[in-house]
Specification:
The structure is a single chain. By secondary structure, the chain is α/β, with parallel strands linked by helices. The protein folds into two domains: 264 residues, Zn peptidases (Aminopeptidase, 3-Layer(aba) Sandwich), CATH 3.40.630; 112 residues, Alpha-Beta Plaits. 35% of the residues lie in helices and 25% in strands. It is built from eleven helices and 16 strands. The strands form four sheets. An eight-stranded mixed sheet has the order 1-2-4-3-5-16-6-15, with helices on both faces. A four-stranded antiparallel sheet has the order 10-12-8-13. A two-stranded antiparallel ribbon has the order 7-14. Helix 3 links the parallel strand 3 and strand 4. Helix 2 runs parallel beside helix 3, helix 6 packs antiparallel against helix 8 and helix 9 crosses helix 11. The radius of gyration is 23 Å and the shape is elongated. The protein starts with a helix and ends with a helix.
Length: 387
Amino acid sequence: MPILNRAAEMQEEVAAWRRHLHSNPELNFDVVETAAFVADKLKAFGCDEVATGIGRTGVVGVIRGSKGGGKTVGLRADMDALPIVEVTGKPYASQNTGKMHACGHDGHTAMLLGAARYLAETRNFAGSVAVIFQPAEEGGGGGNEMVKDGMMERFGISRVFGMHNMPGLPVGQFAIRPGPIMAATAEFTISVKGRGGHAAMPHGTIDPIVVASQLVGALQTITSRSADPVEALVVSVTKFHAGDAYNVIPETAEIAGTVRTLKKEMARKAEERMRAICAGLAAAFGATIDVHYDANYPVTFNHAEETAFAADVAAAVAGDAQVHRAIQPLMGGEDFSYMLEARPGAFIFLGNGDTAGLHHPAYDFNDEAIAHGVSYWVKLAETALAA
């Protein structure tokens, strides 16, 4: 099945929904207007059930097929934006200063709405489709909140699938892999307390800036000297705060950053080594170093059977040559991982073309990808729930 004629026909209307969402971005769980927009559309399409407030502000629509059956497949899109100042200059650019759909969640939501409309019109399947619209993917763990809220059990979801756009991958192409496809994430904050004093008399101080500077370099050895070179591990320091004056050595300094891994063993090793390095440097300099380490999203792990199924569906839409079935894992995080821990499923990438990268202030979702995404969702639902 190539791109659905109906998906091509809906292209401009779905793009209009996407641009409306782009103009009105909301953050984290505060996606009240976005969720209301989604719920109103699902009701207008004639969904059999529209549930709001799932995982605080998530929305789930249920569409029952015309051929009976009891299985339910879940299709998930994310709704939240990022705290970024947009510089696209588009006529539909963000109207909420400092908030921007810089990761394409506006496109994800619009495509799933388009698929929901088609599936509600045709109902050419046995069982039910649960279209899942999730808040707070960008660091809030909205996927986890929806799972903890009993979403899988309430709607009887047996398998769950997700999709994300990928800049640099041509429009009309898909990319996937079995096993780990995106990394587990963790954040750390390290506070260094020394002894402040006059910058002209450093011998009477314990300079926390010197200690923290040593830490920045030493933490890089976790990857270069404590991890097997063939293992995936990223340790990045992304914040460094200390001091307020030219002639004062401050009392404290603080660094913070992120750790990304594809295996639980590597996540444990990274935290252990970080704490050991901090303890050693504290002893060496006579400072006090406190480590706050927060393990966040787990690895996004694609189940083998569902990955093969999703790839075959994508090939039916785009052609086998347009589906990359063994891409390298990405070290970005994704909280669809929680849904994949709760149910078997798979996460796939959809080409966004030659655009600015994700989380960039010049990024914009490519509306040319809409018909491909809608067709994939429809084909996946109808095939998974074939009579």
